[in-house]
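testing teh design pipeline on a random one, pls ignore if ur not involved
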């Protein structure tokens, strides 16, 4: 396998600011697995190498060529045309040819024909044009001298020694950060039963995106919307009161049990069967739901008791994956603090909502369905009598009985998010994490001192693809209210469902028909009680990893083996959920996720462990290997041995020496791959697709393993070359740790 990697876009710089925490009372017991802090912490020193970053150099190259053409009038274009000139940057077919290739001659000829201009010399052949441009350009800072190649191409080689020295030194200049706070809403699990495997995909996607944004230097609020007054909670209340005939006191005793959410899981499935047995039973649901929404009654109090207990279990489950939240806005406060009333008034005044006096939606307040012909895509454009909404294009927001649907409440909630509602929640502390960070929850009458939530610049909602219409309706409501800029900064971070492979379902104890066994995947259903609880999945993964750890490392203590198994299992799960693009349906499988080979979390973790072992065996500290006392790479000195790892310094001359020639080309491919971390992070943010980072982790680990097997580092007799090879390992190890940390994956000391 070649160690070469090509990339295609301009790099961006990313840093993570320190997060704010609130210190109160005593820490609650942690349910997280123990882990080594050096691997869990998220570093802010990303790969921001100023003038020498690979993608930045691409930008420098493009602009240097543009400036040359403008200054020399090599192509006589109108003065404003140079800024629009398409200067394509490609990757040569072989790294030996260079790092970049510009098919510039063809673009110049194309533009000459377009504008009727002429070149500053009589020759028109692409090969001759590329020769003249290469000669005229001369050497660009950060590059070797350009070389014409083929018919019309110019190849450019990066000054490898300079880039490698900067990358090894981990230079981190300040990066420009867009203003304003970002709000990421994820998880949003109905608090009526245990979280399941589908919720894990949502939470892992959302948590990873938060980490990416914070790496980019953004201030982020993490919110988890709690629908504690919805039909799912009502169904569990029905189960306790009407199927099990339990009192409030009895329910309180059950809620204090270790896994109350598991109890509710089974009860929820039984209630669904009860409804199917007799449709009249649905009237009980309707009455219960009405009582919950009305509030200040025994049924509402029981619903609050159940939803609060289940919510705490959800937070504990997610905490096992190192997933935390800042604020838990609840639907009950959306109702009781009259958020909807304020939003309803604004929507009617703006003409976004219309009252239907006839037809199937008579007595309802409706708005135009998103995506229909005359959707509110222009600020201030409301439906008039001449532009009446047809019934098929109507989206009911308030039903004829006066009850507002969940989309209406969602509109009010998002107006609050952007600071457009004129109302606010009360806040109280709800849950404390082991790192002393407090998670707040909404209330009607909260604490006087609290963080400021809402009023953000951008919103990302991690919600599955089935909610696309509802999400689009909220966006159109914002546009109709005249908040087009806010609508443009509202992103539905959609994803597809998680299913099980038949093998996985069988391992979890489900009885499968012959037809089920032949399917590619089996869909889960919480309402039917068929699915995988998140905690059960984590327990099974940890148990499976523990068997492997016990067999490989019997010398470790019980606590060490438990911690290692947890890190491997959680890394496997998080990686598995992230490696698939969001529109893909995931068929989860234990064997595939826990494999130490292939595109898995353990494979990437093992590459880091392998790199660390090289330094351990050599008696070096991998964290400080590349740096001297000032934090800079420098040439070896006579007293280097007195400073421990300072003996590992590699001079710029050594970098140039060992990165030259065919063997240097191979190793250079690994350095280039390591230099792409910041670019990939930027790509993930721009496309809201964390799968790119998972792919980058796998490819870098794969390249490193090839390098590891090809070069016997510690037995290298040439001390200068040995230092260079160790520096290569240190850089790749550092970047892999950062990449995995951005995915929420820590690395154990052994595997």
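output:
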């Amino acid at each position: 396998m070649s160690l070469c990697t090509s990339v295609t876009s301009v790099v961006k710089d990313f840093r993570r600011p320190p997060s704010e925490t609130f210190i109160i009372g005593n820490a609650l017991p942690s349910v997280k697995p123990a882990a080594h802090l050096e691997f869990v912490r998220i570093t802010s020193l990303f790969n921001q190498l100023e003038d020498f970053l690979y993608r930045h150099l691409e930008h420098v190259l493009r602009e240097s060529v543009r400036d040359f053409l403008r200054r020399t009038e090599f192509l006589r274009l109108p003065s404003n045309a140079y800024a629009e000139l398409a200067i394509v940057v490609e990757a040569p077919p072989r790294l030996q040819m260079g790092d970049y290739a510009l098919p510039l001659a063809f673009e110049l000829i194309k533009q000459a024909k377009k504008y009727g201009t002429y070149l500053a010399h009589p020759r028109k052949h692409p090969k001759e044009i590329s020769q003249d441009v290469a000669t005229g350009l001369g050497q660009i800072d950060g590059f070797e001298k350009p070389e014409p190649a083929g018919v019309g191409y110019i190849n450019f080689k990066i000054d490898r020694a300079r880039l490698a020295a900067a990358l090894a030194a981990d230079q981190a200049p300040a990066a420009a950060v867009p203003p304003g706070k970002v709000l990421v809403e994820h998880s949003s699990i109905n608090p009526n039963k245990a979280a399941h495997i589908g919720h894990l995909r949502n939470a892992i996607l959302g948590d990873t995106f938060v980490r990416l944004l914070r790496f980019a230097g953004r201030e982020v609020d993490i919110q988890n919307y709690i629908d504690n007054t919805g039909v799912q909670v009502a169904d569990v209340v029905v189960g306790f009161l009407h199927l099990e005939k339990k009192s409030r006191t009895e329910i309180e005793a059950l809620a204090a049990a270790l896994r109350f959410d598991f109890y509710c899981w089974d009860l929820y499935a039984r209630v669904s069967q009860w409804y199917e047995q007799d449709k009249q039973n649905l009237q009980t649901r309707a009455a219960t739901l009405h009582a919950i929404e009305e509030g200040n009654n025994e049924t509402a109090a029981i619903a609050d008791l159940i939803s609060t207990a289940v919510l705490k279990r959800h937070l504990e489950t997610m905490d096992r994956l190192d997933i935390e939240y800042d604020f838990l806005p609840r639907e009950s406060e959306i109702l009781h603090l009259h958020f909807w009333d304020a939003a309803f008034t604004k929507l009617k005044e703006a003409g976004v909502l219309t009252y239907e006096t006839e037809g199937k939606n008579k007595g309802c307040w409706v708005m135009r369905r998103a995506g229909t012909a005359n959707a509110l895509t222009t600020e201030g454009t409301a439906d008039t009598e001449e532009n009446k909404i047809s019934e098929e294009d109507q989206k009911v927001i308030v039903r004829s009985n006066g009850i507002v649907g969940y989309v209406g409440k969602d509109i009010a909630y998002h107006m609050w998010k952007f600071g457009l509602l004129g109302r606010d929640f009360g806040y109280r502390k709800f849950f404390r994490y082991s790192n002393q960070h407090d998670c707040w929850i909404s209330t009607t009458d909260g604490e006087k001192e609290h963080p400021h939530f809402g009023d953000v610049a951008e919103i990302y909602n991690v919600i599955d693809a089935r909610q696309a219409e509802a999400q689009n309706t909220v966006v159109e409501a914002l546009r109709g209210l005249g908040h087009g800029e806010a609508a443009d900064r509202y992103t539905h971070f959609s994803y597809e469902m998680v299913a099980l492979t038949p093998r996985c379902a069988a391992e979890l104890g489900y009885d499968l028909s012959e037809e089920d066994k032949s399917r590619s995947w089996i869909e889960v259903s919480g309402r039917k009680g068929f699915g995988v609880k998140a905690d059960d999945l984590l327990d099974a993964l940890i148990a499976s990893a523990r068997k492997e750890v016990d067999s490989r490392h019997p010398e470790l203590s019980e606590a060490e083996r438990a911690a290692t198994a947890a890190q491997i299992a959680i890394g496997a799960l998080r990686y598995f959920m992230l490696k698939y693009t969001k529109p893909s349906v995931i068929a989860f499988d234990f064997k595939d996720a826990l494999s130490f080979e292939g595109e898995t979390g353990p494979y990437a973790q093992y590459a880091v462990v392998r790199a660390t072992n090289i330094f351990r065996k050599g008696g070096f500290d991998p964290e400080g290997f590349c740096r001297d006392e000032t934090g800079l790479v420098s040439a070896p000195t006579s007293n280097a041995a007195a400073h421990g790892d300072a003996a590992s310094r590699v001079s710029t001359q050594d970098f140039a020496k060992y990165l030259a020639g065919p063997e240097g080309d191979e190793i250079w491919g690994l350095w280039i791959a390591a230099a792409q971390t910041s670019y990939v992070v930027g790509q993930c943010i721009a496309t809201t697709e964390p799968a790119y980072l998972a792919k980058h982790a796998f490819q870098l680990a794969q390249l490193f393993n090839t390098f590891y097997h090809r070069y016997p580092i510690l037995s290298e007799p040439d001390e200068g070359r040995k230092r260079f090879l160790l520096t290569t390992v240190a850089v790749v190890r550092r970047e892999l740790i950062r990449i995995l940390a951005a995915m929420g994956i820590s690395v154990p000391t052994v595997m």
